[in-house]
Amino acid sequence: MQTYQSPVQLKLKEEKRTSKNFMEKEKEINLIKEEIRIWSKEVLEIPESRFGGLPPCPYARQAWAKNKVRVHVVSDLGDCLTIKDMCPDDDSLDVVAWTGYESMSADDFDTWQDEQNEKHSGKWLLGFHPDHPEDEDAGEFVGNDAPEYGIILIQGLTHLSKVSNTLFNRGYYNSYPKSEIKLIKRRNELCHQKEKEKLSKRKNP
Asked: Rounded to 5 degrees, what angle do the CA atoms 109, 95, 127 make?
């Protein structure tokens, strides 16, 4: 026999379910943000010989210390583009955890990222899809059992290009394959092109 539930009871039940889903979602988001911070401390900020004795992300520790890292959790890449538009062209960094990665293959994601960087608007994306091949030289990272996600780093192109030129001189890229060096030089060329366009506009307003 089916029990009758009044509209008020049904509404309370729905609110309880929605509230529970919201709390679970908040817990997942907090776990992901916490894991990203752990990943930075245990992996990105630790010096490695393959990076010329520098950490994989040489300026990560300094950026966290100066509160210049903004962490976001999104399911839609459209939200990532909104974050990109809002990212200032300075030495700060947006770290985007992308939980909707199953909607796009790793190859399609790479294509999407390349297209975004070609029309960069002064911001640069560096992303990692969970289905990308694992870096065999990287140490094992355990994490905190957060849900799986892709990572997209967003930075101002001017600062990124300037820093990479410094890192070239410090031997950071000595172990990089030629294909990746080519991409980095292409990125710096795009930055130089942007600066030339800015200068031209100032001279010919």
From this structure: 25
CA-nearest of 106, 99, 103, 107 to 80 is 99
CA dihedral 177, 179, 185, 189 (to 10 degrees): -170
pLDDT along the chain (205 residues), means of 10: 50 62 88 96 94 94 96 95 92 96 96 91 93 80 92 93 91 93 88 67 60
Q: Which two tokens stand for residue 103?
A: 């909607």
Distance between CA atoms of 98 and 154, rounded to whole angstroms?
13
Q: How many Å apart are CA 129 and CA 53, to the nearest integer?
A: 27
Q: How do the residues of the chain divide into helix, strand and coil, expressed in percent and rounded to 5?
A: 55, 10, 35
What is this structure's pTM? 0.83
Query: What is the distance between the alpha carbons of residues 104 and 36, in angstroms, rounded to a whole number?
Result: 22
